[in-house]
Write a structure and sequence with these properties.
- The chain has helices at 32-35, 45-60, 66-84, 115-130, 136-153, 162-169, 237-249, 254-263, 271-286, 291-319, 324-331, 351-367, 390-404, 409-424; strands spanning 14-15, 21-22, 25-26, 158-159, 370-376, 384-389.
- It is mostly helical.
- The protein is 48% helix and 5% strand.
- The chain is globular, with a radius of gyration of 23 Å.
Length: 425
Amino acid sequence: MTKKIAFLLIGLSIFLSLSCKKGDKEIDPEAIAEISEPASSYGANVISDYSSLQLKLIPNTPGYETPVAARTMAYLALAAYEAGVNGIEDKKSLAGTLEGFNNLPEIDKSVEYNWPLAINASQHTLMKKIYGTTGDVLKTRMDTLKRQYETFYKNGVGSDIVESVWNYSQTDNGHAAYDNNYPKSNSEFSGVGKWVPTGDQKRPLLPEWGTVRTFGTGNSELVAEPVKTFSFSNNTDFFSEVNDVYTTASNLNVAQEAIMNFWYMPERSVTQAGNQLGFLLDLLSKENYKLDKALVLNLRVTFAMHDALVASYKNKYGNNIMRPSSYIHEAIDPNWQPNLPEVAVPDYTSEQATLVSAVATVLANEFGEDYIFEIVSQEDNTKKRAFKTFSSFAKEATVAPIYAGVHYRMSATNGALQGITVASN
């Protein structure tokens, strides 16, 4: 996938009207690029500021599990992109190309636009809707941030199609999932070798998430490699998978423990999607990205995260395989426990491996595979990991759940391959 390939996205057009004429002369509609400063002339602060606010919203808004958080990031990213796309050279709105999203109002090409201010309005308006159940303190922070940009640029802005964006987001089968993360009884997933609850939560998380609309072509139908045939017999490939987890997780060295603990995201945290968003913000700052490039990369990363999790959950509930701990309790060691808590979902494929591999693929395409960087945990900023390649970054995220004892190696490995495919579609 090249940099010229953009993910499909919804649109948001928000504009600043300064003057329709200069003196007594009509402005040439084709001269819009000369009327408005290009997005490349602005810094990416408006993207960073609103994304940073999301990192506060996610753990403090009920129901924002990793898939829900990634979906929300994606819609806000595409809203920002559409608000500024007319200021980006060689980029176009994708209205009319995204499934089911058509007939958006076009911008007035005789009007001058301030792209950061337009994006500010788009993020504030959609954020108030999409994080509508958050507390008053964080809602006030949204309002404060909006006013800061309006004061800085000293101009007003109109937002005439926010409702179109909001309405479109409600048609993807993922709207309001935060309000009902556990809609089905586990009895619907029972059977030999099937997932059973392993913690306090007795219902499966987001069992219909695999049906949520994706942004990348082909990602909604993406299927991982077939899972190995389930068996309790100790001379089978499946038993070997289980024994691998059992022996590996039970005998970690110091380096493996450090990897496992770095990648762990507890319940009601910023989530692994938030962890990757924070990483993206660090890269935008490190590379001093201007607004135009930041809009595009933000879009690509968040779309990849959303689609990766839809693909992973589609396979999770399509295969419905029990966690390693359940198998080990039945066939190997009834007293064994994984090193970290498990999310209430079937095993195959690993959501973390799929998610981070998709992100790593997008970033390798952007910066090159060989790239020296550090990632800081958004959950605990004392935890840091350094890498020289994006593939080593993805590999760590892939093996960490094995070290934790919460995923089979096949789930992690094939999840990683799935994430690479997601980012390439």
